[in-house]
Each structure stands twice: as C-alpha cells, then as structure tokens.
Amino acid sequence: MVTPRADSKLKHKRDEEQTQIQCWEEEEPENHGNEILGNPSLKGGLIKKTKLSKCDESMGPKEHATTMVGLAGIPVSPCYPDSKGGVYFVLEKASLVAAYVGKRYQILNPDEHANFLRRKNKNPYDYRPDIVHEALLQIMGSRLCMAGRLRGVFIRTDEGILIRVEPNTQIPKTLGSFCNMMAELLQKFSIKSKGKRGKLLRLIENPVTQHLPVNSRKIGLSVSSPKAVQINDYLAAANQDENLVFVVGAMAHGKIDAEYVDDFISVSALPLSAGTCLRRICVALERNQKIH
Q1: Rounded CA gap, 71 and 184, in Å?
Q2: Alpha-carbon gap, residue 38 to 31, rounded angstroms
Q3: Separation CA 59–CA 65 (nearest Å)
Q4: Are 286 and 142 within 8 A, CB to CB?
Q5: Could you tell me where the DSSP H helices lie in 106-209?
Q6: What single-letter DSSP state applies at residue 73?
Q7: DSSP state of 237
Q8: 254 or 104, which is more confident
C-alpha cells in the first residue's frame, strides 16, 4: 500500500521530470557503453542536445527550483555587489567533453581516458579540462573577484555549450573534483550553492553577446594579433564607463575565432597559457582600479 506521503513524493518527482522534459530536448543514451556525448563528428555516437529552451528563462522561482541541482560541498566565496566597475571573462573553446566510460558519466582527460580516446581514434591531448580549470582558479582567486569587480564568467565549449559561472562560485582546487562538478552540470543543467537557492553555474542560450551589457568592450587575446600592447597602458587608455569583456582561449592549440570581439590584442610576444594570460590581466586590472 502506498501512503499519502509517499504518493505525494512520487507526484512531485513526476512533476519535476515533466518540467525538465518541457525545457530541454535530449536523446537518452541507449546504453552506458563507451560512446562520447556531445561530439557530432562521431558517426553513430550518442549526441546530447544542450540547447537551453526559452522556457527556463521565463520560469518563476518555484519552477526554477525543479531544475536546480545542489552539489554537496561547494561553498561560495565572498562577493561585494556594491562595488563599482564591471569586468567579464569569456573562455572560448574549452574542452569539457563528457562520456559514459563504463557506467560513469565523466569529463574526458588524457590522464584517465587515454586508452578510451585512442580506441575512438581521438588524440587524448586534445581533451584538456585542466586548462579551463586553471583559468577559473586564476579568475576566482584574484583580488579583482574578491573586491566585487567581476560580474561574470562565461565558458563556451568545443561543442558550443555555453556556461555561466557566477562570481561567488568557489572552484574546486583539484582537477578530479572540478571534472565531477562539470559532469554534474552537463547532466543537470545547473548547480546551486550549498544551503542556498541561487544558481552558481548554469547552462544558458547562445550567443554569449545577449548576456553581456550593451556598453561593453569585448577584447580578444591572441599571441598572433599584430596589435601588441602593454596591458597596463591599454587599460589606462580604456573608457572607464565601459564594461570590459576579455575573451581568452581555453584550448591546448589554435586561436579563438570570435566574431563578436571588438579588438584583438597581444600582451606578450611569447605564447602564454590561459592561466598565465588571465593572471596578467587580473593583476593589471587590480592596479588600474587601485585594488589592494
């Protein structure tokens, strides 16, 4: 016999599942074998659609609660919303490819999944979630973020998935914990803070420009740019009324190809890692805005 309380729980679960189905389209994997998800180049592979429906944007607080996912042990870092100024970062071409390896849904990386990727005729070293992990640690651990000048971070993956990371998100220090968090995000579409209702990370609709302020200057970073600058001088000459959006590649090789960028600059004659480049930008912004 089903008690009224158990019946209520079952009804709530069915309502939650129905809400998620209405807001998202996805193809359920037929099996949990060794198929890479989200990569249309693999014939016969299992493709997981990750385009966010507009109904997620129009939901009220109660409806939003059905799509929130709490990941235990993710605290929030301090945030000071009353600070003036605004800085955004966009991490392009991030490698966050998820797959069922055995029975686990995991973010692929060359240390753990080299043999799996070679069986798929893929180069293991093209799958580098450690790059975006290091980039996020540099941004979120900066004084710029602690002072409340950071307004948001966006991650655009190789598969075209767009992720928003709120400034009060504390990124896990280890790569394994970070990959577990991102795998959870790709499955559940959002992650909320522990004990809170606010979303720390969530999948959002492309393009990224619709989530940026109108009065923003979008600055791309590339070592191949003919416009070499001293970053301190460049920031000193920038319009103080504009929000600054820095677009940095989070991939192992290649360069970003973002049509929405207003200006491409180079801050070093040598190729810098994404983490080093972002650290240089954050330090320059802290000096420019007199953050001590």
Answers
A1: 8
A2: 15
A3: 9
A4: yes
A5: 110-119, 129-140, 143-146, 175-188
A6: T
A7: T
A8: 104
pLDDT at 245 over 50: yes
pLDDT tens sequence across 3-60 = 555 455 545 544 544 443 333 333 333 344 444 444 433 333 333 444 443 334 333 3
Separation CA 20–CA 282 (nearest Å)? 38
281 or 21, higher pLDDT:
281
Show me where the domains of the chain are located. Answer: 71-96+125-288
Q: How many CA atoms lie within 13 A of 196 on its CB side?
A: 15
The pLDDT value given to residue 33: 40
CB contact at 8 A, 246 and 272: no
Which is more confidently placed, 22 or 118?
118
Between 280 and 255, the more confident residue is 280
Between the CA atoms of 195, 199, 203 and 206, what dihedral angle is there, to the nearest 10 degrees? Answer: 180
What's the CATH fold of domain 71-96+125-288? Alpha/beta knot (3.40.1280)
Tokens at 246, concatenated: 């820095």
Reduced DSSP (H G I as helix, E B as strand, rest coil) percent helix, strand, coil of the chain, to 5? 35, 20, 45
The tens digit of pLDDT for each residue in 173-185 reads 999 999 999 999 9
* Cα separation values, 279 from 164, 231, 272, Å: 20, 12, 11
Task: Measure Cα distances from 13 to 21, 67, 177 in Å.
Answer: 12, 12, 28
Token match 């180049």: residue?
A: 41
- Distance (Å, whole) CA 212 – CA 197: 23
CA distance 216 to 245: 7
Query: Residues 257, 262, 265, 271: what is their CA dihedral angle, to the nearest 10 degrees?
Result: -20
